[in-house]
Amino acid sequence: MKYIINIGLEVHVELLTRSKLFCGCSTDFGSPPNTQTCPICLGLPGVLPVINKKAVEYTIATGLALNCKILPFCRFARKNYYYPDLPKNYQISQYDEPIAKEGWIQINKGNGKTKRIKIQRVHLEEDAGKLIHGYSTKNAQDEPWSFVDYNRTGIPLMEIVSYPDINSPEEAYQYLTNLKKILQYLKVSDCNMEEGSLRCDANISLTPREGEMGVRTELKNMNSFKDLKDALISEVKRQADVLDQGKRIAQETRIWDIKKKKTTVMRSKEEAHDYRYFPEPDLLPLKIKKEWIEKIKEKIPELPSHRFERFIKEYELPPYDAEVLTDSRDLADYFEECVKLFPYPKIVSNWMMGELLRLVKREGKSLDKVKITPAGLAEVLTEVKKGTLSGSLAKEAIEVMFKTGKGIKQIIEEKGLQQISDEESLRKVAEQAIKENPKAVRDFQNGKKEALGYLVGQVMKRTKGKANPKLVNKIIREKI
Ligand code: ZN
Ligand code: MN
């Protein structure tokens, strides 16, 4: 590739506050359309907005976690544009005085190399409503209608803008992954792309010369992490083709077409001055005191990259395990809780990555909704360690615990899961198996080692997997 790629990402996330940014309306997702509105978020004349303190706090916390400077003074601004989902005809946003600026996010480049992507700004603004296109249920034969739902109008939205430091679609993917992880650790947003609580736009340009910027296009309508990567790959190729032909790139906004797997023109790109930004006259500027910032700083949890390093050092986990287990704060907390009660980190890690996450995935449940607690898992693993439970019985116990939350003692009793280690009864079953499989016995005696496995298997089958396999092995060897 003879061009240098420059990508900048603009990420919008809805904050997890209970009420909207400038009024007391609820932010719950999925309520019937237009049931969470009031004169303020509908933009009726004569009403005044009041700032949501929690939203400012979340933005400061994010700024700190992203290594930004928090500005002691900031202001809101009106961004003027017309669209049916914007009842006021302007969005209250921030312009040249955001809450936080000049930070960075670290990404992994592979082979132990890292890179810092610089962040330009983190600011706070209000979300717009949602347009729904479709048929009204009563008149299905009619022309399609467009509806507007103002429930989303005024929900606090945090915008995180990077510098165009990202040099490949892969780096963009990494940046977004790490950013999402940090926001989820902070619990400021659920970052659910399907419900629209995380949205990402990209601007991208190609240039043949270092230190120079090409004409950029803006990409919209990427609805998943994979979309983002695919859209960028496709746009890199398109721009390179245009440049190869000696033509110029037009500055425009393009939309990602998921079905056609390419970007198409949406509109020519607007400039900041088109929005006629001016200071919001209905809100006082914010003064952010040092003491407040310090207080917020104290509440910031250990962040994913730090926790990843610590898991490797403190628990001697392989990087792969540490990566999986620190993927979410809940998962990492679960692991540490379990290790406190059963101090064999690698064993806990194996069972969590194997059984627990398998069940979580199969049942499509989030970790905070499953019934097996870290203490419950520790109990199962303790039984395995003691030899009371075999590996396969432990899996069964974990599955029951996952669904019912019952304690291990109760499960063993009810399900009769206890491993049979009583030599006398196993001897009887083994004798039976030997008697009924003379060929396997002969094979073994003629030096065919696999035949022993077959006989052990017969005993396991007869005991429904409950026999202690080591003991069965020993008994059969003695007998034949
Ligand atoms: Zn409202
Ligand atoms: Mn915005």
Please specify the SSE layout and strand pairing:
Elements: E1 4-14, H1 53-65, E2 69-70, E3 73-74, E4 77-80, E5 90-93, E6 100-110, E7 113-126, E8 130-134, E9 145-149, E10 156-162, H2 169-186, E11 198-207, E12 217-222, H3 225-244, E13 252-257, E14 262-268, E15 278-279, E16 286-287, H4 290-299, H5 304-315, H6 319-325, H7 329-341, H8 345-363, H9 374-386, H10 391-404, H11 408-415, H12 423-436, H13 438-445, H14 450-462, H15 469-479
Parallel strand pairs: 12-13
Antiparallel strand pairs: 1-10, 1-11, 2-6, 3-16, 4-5, 4-15, 6-7, 7-10, 8-9, 11-12, 13-14
Write a structural description.
The model has no long low-confidence stretch (mean pLDDT 91). This protein starts with a strand and ends with a helix. 40% of the residues lie in helices and 20% in strands. The protein has 15 helices and 16 strands. It has 480 residues and is of the alpha+beta class. The strands form four sheets. It has a nine-stranded mixed sheet. A three-stranded antiparallel sheet has the order 5-4-15, with no helix packed on it. The protein has three domains: 3-293, no CATH class; 302-415, no CATH class; 423-479, Arc Repressor Mutant, subunit A (Orthogonal Bundle). Strand 13 (252-257) and strand 14 (262-268) form a beta hairpin. The chain has helices at residues 53-65, 169-186, 225-244, 290-299, 304-315, 319-325, 329-341, 345-363, 374-386, 391-404, 408-415, 423-436, 438-445, 450-462, 469-479, and strands at residues 4-14, 69-70, 73-74, 77-80, 90-93, 100-110, 113-126, 130-134, 145-149, 156-162, 198-207, 217-222, 252-257, 262-268, 278-279, 286-287. The structure holds zinc ion (ZN) and manganese (II) ion (MN). The site of manganese (II) ion (MN) has 3 residues, from loops. Manganese (II) ion binds at residues 12, 125, 159.
